[in-house]
């Protein structure tokens, strides 16, 4: 599921699991900001759900 989300946003899985957390967050934030507002909110909700499941 995370792979599908990340490919839809143009983000690689390495961006999510980068050793450099600041770089990872920057890349993800930049990609999310490029989305229309309604898509951005939906993408954030799904990403948060997936990250919660990964705990």
Which helices and strands occur, and which strands form pairs?
Elements (H helix, E strand, L loop, with lengths): L1 H8 L3 H4 L4 H13 L3 H17 L2
Protein name: HTH cro/C1-type domain-containing protein
Organism: Loigolactobacillus bifermentans DSM 20003
Question: Would you kindly provide a written description of the structure presented here, covering whatever features stand out?
Answer:
There is one protein chain. With 55 residues, the protein is mostly helical. It has one domain (2-53). 76% of the residues lie in helices and 0% in strands. The chain is built from 4 helices and no strands. The protein has helices spanning 2-9, 13-16, 21-33, 37-53. The longest helix is centred in the last third of the chain and has 17 residues, at 37-53. It starts with a helix and ends with a helix.
Radius of gyration: 11 Å
Distance between the termini: 15 Å
The portion of residues assigned to helices is over 70%
The helix/strand series, from N terminus to C terminus, equals HHHH
How many strand units? Answer: 0
**What is the average of the pLDDT values?**
75
Secondary structural class: mainly alpha
Largest sheet: none
Individual helix count: 4
The low-pLDDT segments are none
- How many separate domains? 1
Overall geometry: globular
Strand percentage, roughly?
Answer: under 5%
